[in-house]
Amino acid sequence: MDYVKYLPVALTAMVSALTIALASWFGVTALLLVVCGLCGVVALGWPQLMGVTARKSLSAVILAAGIVAVLGAAVVNRVESLFFWSSVSLAFGVMVVFMIQVIRGSGRPHRLESTLGACTGVVITTTAAGWVAGLRYPAGMREAADGAGLSALRVRGFAPYEDWGFLGVTGPGGELSVVALSAFVMCIGTAAACVPARDALVLPLVVLASTVTSVGIALLWGELTLLFAGVLGLAGGVLLASFRRFLFLQGPPEHILSRLAVGAAPIAVMGVLVYFTERLLIA
Prior knowledge:
There is one protein chain. By secondary structure, the chain is mostly helical. The chain has one domain (3-281). It has 11 helices and no strands. It has helices spanning 7-26, 28-50, 55-75, 84-103, 111-127, 130-136, 139-146, 178-193, 199-221, 226-250, 256-281. The chain crosses the membrane at residues 20-46, 58-76, 82-103, 115-133, 176-195, 202-221, 227-244, 256-276. Keywords: Membrane, Transmembrane, Transmembrane helix. It comes from Nesterenkonia natronophila.
């Protein structure tokens, strides 16, 4: 198997995750810009990957849905509304995709594939808003109201507490950023997914490496419970393992934009897992 063809996919995933980790340390605005760029990469390459027609219009819909979702997560002032605009963008994005197919008229080739592929792209970009929502929930929202900050999440770990922002793992106040933790998990998981071996060996390795990384960072910095870190690492590992399996079954995409989109897709989707894991496990 020619693993060189998969190199752009792995590099895109790695760079995307590292950029998210760095941006999360600088705040919501920086992370918003990075996630919008991530949506742009997916929007440009996803229609090519799925082999759909009307690529320009569908790329525009995929990108617009993602940007609206990300902006919504960044500007709302209620915790309950953090993912509201993602739902709205997803609904309207799918509706516009169907409208484009109707406008194209009858008898067009690959209509079903085009519709399903574009809808999948909309799902990916709208779920990317979870990165921004995850950075703001719950302490980011509370910080604006009473100055509590992320300190409410702090749980003492095995190592001395550090507050100098090493590799962007800590937030501006010195507390662990859940978004940065998740991004580092995706980096390690991506590296494990690049091991040139059979899926029977690599897929469990990806899940194990992601989980161990998440728990290890939580123990080192002592900011989050092991349950939260373990669930987050497990979710990221399963996501990356699924994408690796799908990619190897289908073979490397032919076009460079498609390869970049495949690399960016699991990082974008991880956003929704970050946010809802926080909602479920952090009060």
